[in-house]
Amino acid sequence: MDSDVKCPKCSSTYAYQDGALWICPECGHEWSQQTEGAQGGGADGTAEIRDANGNVLADGDTVTVIKDLKVKGSSLVVKGGTKVKGIRLTDGGDGHDIACKIPGIGAMNLKSEFVKKS
């Protein structure tokens, strides 16, 4: 075990390597070797955020929601096929890595696995 590697999410010292990924057994976070040193968020070594089809997303892209999503704490639903313009990529600790404004609903965060690049 490499003792100087810590989980970027919870700072656990029990992280271990499994193939090309590092895994934290305490919080379940997985990250690659390339993103390990990119905690500052520089344009040089940051992790790529990909959509459901594997396309790389960038700030300002337009995406389409691929399935109906319930809005937590509300009776509203984001319908599949909804276009979202001008997304911002964030480093959400809870897996929500896209910040956006959805027409008719307002500002919210989405997971990249539920969108496709338009």
TrEMBL record:
Segments forming domain Protein YjdM N-terminal: 6-32
SUPFAM superfamilies linked: Prokaryotic SH3-related domain (SSF82057), Zinc beta-ribbon (SSF57783)
InterPro entries registered for this protein in UniProt: YjdM, YjdM_C, YjdM_N
Source species, domain of life: Bacteria
Domain Protein YjdM C-terminal: 49-117
Family, per entry: Belongs to the YjdM family.
NCBIfam families hit by this protein: phnA (TIGR00686)
Name of the protein in its database record: PhnA protein
Organism: Acetobacter orleanensis
